Amino acid sequence: MAVQNQSPKVIPTAAIAELCRALAPDRVLFKPEDLVVFEYDGTIERGQPQVVVLPDNTKEVAAAVRIARRYDLPVVPRGAGTGLSGGAVAAVGGVLIAMTRMRRILEVDVENQTALVEPGVVNLDLSKAVAKHGLYYAPDPSSQRACTLGGNVAENAGGPHCLAYGVTTNHVLGLEVVLADGEVMWLGGPVRDLPGYDLPGVVVGSEGTLCIVTKALLRLLSLPQSTRTLLAVFDSVEAATNAVSSIIGSGLVPAALEMIDKETIRALTALDVGYPADAGAVLLIEVDGLKEATSEDAAKVRRVCEQLGAGEIREATDPADREKLWAGRKAAISALGRLAPNYYVLDGVVPRTKLPAVMNAVMEVGARYGLPIANVFHAGDGNLHPNLLFDERAPGATAKVLAAGEEIMRICVDAGGSITGEHGVGLEKRDYLSWIFSEADIHAMQRLKAVFGAGEHFNPCKAFPTSKGCGEVHSSAIQAFGADAYV
Amino acid sequence: MTPDLRQALRDALPSTTQTAKAEDYGIEGMTPPIAVKPASEEELIETLAACNAAQAAVVPWGSGSQMHFGMPLARYDVALDLTSLDGLLEYEPADLTVSVQVGMRLAGLEAILGENGQWLPLDPLVNESATIGGILATNASGPGRVVYGTARDFLIGIAVATPEGETIRAGGRVVKNVAGYDLGKLHIGALGTLGVITRASFKVAPLPELMLTIAAATPQPGALIVIAREAHRRGLAVNRLCLIWTQAASGWQLLVRMAGGASAVETSRRQLNELAVANGVSLAPVDGSVWSRLPAFQPGAEIVAKAAVMPTAISSILERLKALNSAIVAYPTAGIVYGSWQAGAVSSDDLKDLRRLCVQAGSGALVLEKAPAELRVAVDVWGQPRGDFSLMQGLKRQFDPEGILNPGRFVGGI
Predict the structure, then answer these.
(1) Measured between CB atoms, does A169 come within 8 Å of chain B?
(2) Which residues of A touch B93 (CB under 8 A)?
(3) Looking at domain B210-293, what is its CATH homologous superfamily?
(4) Which of A187, A288, B259, B318 has its CA 20 to 30 A from that of A23?
């Protein structure tokens, strides 16, 4: 479904010629057949850029930004396009900067535990590259085999292990960025506590609206000495949710604490990941650290789960076993395609203690709308992902899904939570922002945009309530996710 | 401020806020004509708006222990005491989050959290009366940062009063949240120059079951740095670590606090012992009160410089500081070193040289956190602004267009 309801500007041939000169003709795409693959991201919203450039370095990014500025064309940065809020969709056309070629790990400083990377580096590739030094990069979105670090920075990406280790922003030291006028600037640097305002702190999570990140200096952690992964089987989501609260309440913060419900387990049956088919819900729990500490913690987790009615508790005995337990979690969303032709992934956050009540309310919404819901989410963080299953060919199905999704978002907000924990506001949730922020709050955020001189040059129509020129996108903002979607 | 303007401002202020005595709010010989202590956030907002309209320079106060922090004030018309705004707004222990008004003392908050077996693992070595607002504004941190990080790693939501008389919020009360720009980050370490923080929400953590402090002493710091790095690399159950040097002790000391379950603490202790033996030093348990006696944070430290450098550059900074007869507190794996002196014991040239070393060898910075005014001016508390300074100036213009908040105190004259 195309989001642009006003015809995008026709791009002048002179602009294309300039881009070809600044980069190289084979790295500037403008034929319709070449542009098609850049229409989508993890959502099915479409928005076709008029031109796609594939820069090789910062200088070329800056040149492309300057040219776009001169011709008054918006610029949209793009990593792997795995985002789930439309962040990489060229909502009103313009120049799309694909970071595909900027995927070098420029420097690994083993002693200081940092890595300097280009934005197109795939998240997991960084951890793989530094593993030989006993290091890893902690934020691990479920899409980590595909998503890029630049995209992670834009969305402040999370992941299962953020429960213990924090999200992207806790791991970014410095950023090289290109501003709207083409100026290249370093924000932050190799050390913490630099004097001045924390500029990397506001660029992380800004959804590509303030500047374009061309290099990131990231913090690496030492690999834990020991990791123990447990799967606890419960009769119901409610029982599993109570166990989550008790584990956290027992003074233990596991490395990961993930929930997979019955419906999702059903979708995973064919993959043979070893989740019991008759379970009402399973919790995937990981503790890491010193060997002695993880034995203690694993024993504690077992005790709490048993007390709260876990029928069975399995533990991975070797790395392959552990991989297998995680494979189910990481493949969960794409497996949902087995249950229904379409599914709509929601991303809400609530205080942990509200999870049981919120989950009940979510399921009640599904029942009322006649929509099956599959849940797979970061229970330890209170970050839920209800997936509404439907068939868009059924008359009225789409409208029903949107209405149910909106109700669920309302439930999260009413419980004191947020409209997005890790997927971003993007196109999808722009108009929900005012549910949690006042006009003054949003105005303050717009002031930050003004400081960066970003206006609507970068990623227009994203992250903020619908503005003039963006049209009414919401009514067409139905999301159905492809086989390569992740949460 | 002319007397007329002063009177106009007095008339515009909310009536219950004028009880504070201005003479209690002097800063280095400057006494403000007006001091206000708002009884509510509404009064705070009204006060700020009135000051903004009168272009009166406002200095927010917490406990007042860090009023020397930063460059000397360019102007000082109104002291704004926030200590009445000290409420606990929301605390559900099982959520592991807490929301407070920032006039609350950190010690008070820790007492509340402690009753529930939790804490905010932010352990700046400041006095007992230090407030949450002051700690955020100065980005104060302590020896726990080597494991837990700093305020930016705990703050999940913020409310800020603006000079224009609005309250703006960012973030929220949940631990994961990417709705809207993360404006809270801008106010950490900003010395209140972009707005007056009124409320803050934090992630909190369970208190460790057991804590045990051990110490090792040597004439040279090399072995201790090796031990610290190795403890960090192995992920030992350590929750505070620092290196200290004083002339009185005439040697280096490594302090480590282990924390966690019994077997984690025991294993960590054993491994640390092995590391110590391998490096020719010995470790012994010491009383936990040692943490409240770190030299840079004692009343006798009249000059305090904080170096932030790459951890690999730490040795050269330690060596230079020792040559300058400084007392030293260092968090080696975080790249943070505090040098402290009595007044007059270090020259501005020495401090400038030290800064050059931090910038060149450590890719970092030196901030003169405490010193007599003339030394702060001679050295420049913050050092040369960096390449991103134009954006910082832009932030100041957007969020405090009249420049009434702590004028002149921050980086580059902001």
Answers:
(1) yes
(2) 249
(3) Ribosomal protein S10 (3.30.70.600)
(4) A187
